[in-house]
Amino acid sequence: MIERIGAIVRADFLIRFRRLSTVVVFLLLSGFAYVWVPSPATGRTLMQVNGARVLYNSAAIGMATAMLASVFVGLFGFYVISNAVRRDIDSRCGYVIASTNMRTVEYIVGKFLGNVVFLSTFMGGYMGASMCMLLVRGEARLQPLIFMKQYAVLVPSAIVFVSVVAIVFESIPLLSGRFGDVAYFVLYALSLAMVVNMMMHGGAVARYVDFSGFGYLMEQTQRNLHTQSLSIGSSPFDASKPVLVIDGFNLGGGAWATRLVSTLSPIPMLLIAVLFFHRFDPARLRAAGAKGKRGWMRNINALARPFVHPLAAIPVRGAALKDAMMTFASTPFTLFALIGITIAAIANPASLPIAFAIVAVFIADVASRDRRAGTTGLIYAAPRLRERFVTWKLSSAAIVALLLLIAPILHTAVVQRARLLPLIVGILFVAAAATSLGVISGNPKTFIVLFLTFWYVVVNDKGATKALDFAGFFSTPAMGVMVMYAGIAIGMLAMAEVVHRMRLQE
């Protein structure tokens, strides 16, 4: 049994790290340590409490970078590892596995441990890079054991939680697709806020399900430093205040038990994965597909299809318009989204950020759906589409976004003309990001998670940081901000064009 589980873990690890994309993400994550640990001479610091800068020692840098790592694993780790079972289906290796005497429990546990090993390796590299930053910018000697203690307190619970949830979502047909990707982001963000709020108000149970460790961090800050004013990440500080020295996390008073339970408590959820796992049975896979077609989302699509048919049947000229109509025809639920956005724009113009999030979900797979469906060969046979693929997909995504946001656009043009240009720039920025990330990564998950994370920051910032308000949600941005997002969009498209040309040459 142990040998079979070990074989799955080893194969999973080798397959993932043989991919160039994994190496690139690994290097980028490790490189973020340089960005997140600024030199105090710049007027910014990694960690500040009540405006005072925290001294760069092993405890402070270890605590801050470990918290950032935990949040990174919680938000992005799921999308990095949530294709372990799908990969075996697509490669047909799963059918070979199903023909052996390996039990379902062994396979699920092996995939879970493979996720844990993979994420732990990433965190190990990131921790090593953070230690190097202490040598470069530190104000005290490196103490490896104290540094590693901060990671041991925070990160394992996040790694185990994400590893379990990824397997559970993949085993349940409803949650194994794009709906599950969005649902995970929403649930994680809500649970993070809920746990922290409960712990700050004395909720004892929340301590045992604090998978991110953020609640524990705030609790420790309140208990030891007698404040809730804490900032982690590159942020300004008050140079007039004395530098604060901290000793790191304290596991006294039973805190070790709460962190241990937070790490181990998600593991029983693997029983849900065992219950729903199809074991690569072709009959069960077909049944799951048929069930999905009868699911609630498909029922809504079936309800909307008669209304979409006239729209899709409109004779249009141009490949971009036809591809945009394909989005409406393949996902009739888009019509209900159009109606909902229109009603919301009329009733409450402040609903524009929600409309952008909905639009992002619908245009996420415009650039990657042909590649995933294996129809790129047919598309490349069409005149000039092969060479103009990126431009074609950008135009298609922009048309879909403009149609869905037609009511907010008209309302802005009539009531707030000054915000019309930022709104158009924001739409084109989102369409360019969806196109670029879809072309480069070949799947919609990359854009969904990155944009929703950025959107979450923008919405919670509420216009306080003018440079984040990319579409004029809260005020009319300056011309420099609009030019910046237009430049980012052009840069992303240029990168996608380079990747596309390289693939064509191959």
Task: Tell me what the structure shows.
- The structure is a single chain.
- This protein is mainly alpha-helical and 506 residues long.
- It has two domains: 2-271, no CATH class; 293-505, no CATH class.
- It is built from 23 helices and three strands.
- A three-stranded antiparallel β-sheet has the order 2-1-3.
- A hairpin with a 2-residue loop joins strand 1 and strand 2.
Give me a quick take on this structure:
The chain is mainly α and 506 residues long. The chain is built from 23 helices and three strands. A three-stranded antiparallel sheet has the order 2-1-3.
How does the major sheet shape up? 3 strands, antiparallel
* Total E-strand runs: 3
Total number of helices: 23
What is the share of helical residues?
55-70%
Q: What is the first-to-last residue Cα distance?
A: 42 Å
> How would you describe the shape?
globular
Number of domains: 2
Report the mean per-residue pLDDT as an integer: 81
Kindly provide the radius of gyration, computed on alpha-carbon positions and rounded to a whole number of angstroms. Answer: 24 Å
The class by helix and strand makeup works out as: mainly alpha
Strand content: under 5%
What is the helix/strand order? HHEEHHHHHHHEHHHHHHHHHHHHHH
Strand order, sheet with most strands: 2-1-3
Low-confidence stretches: 289-297
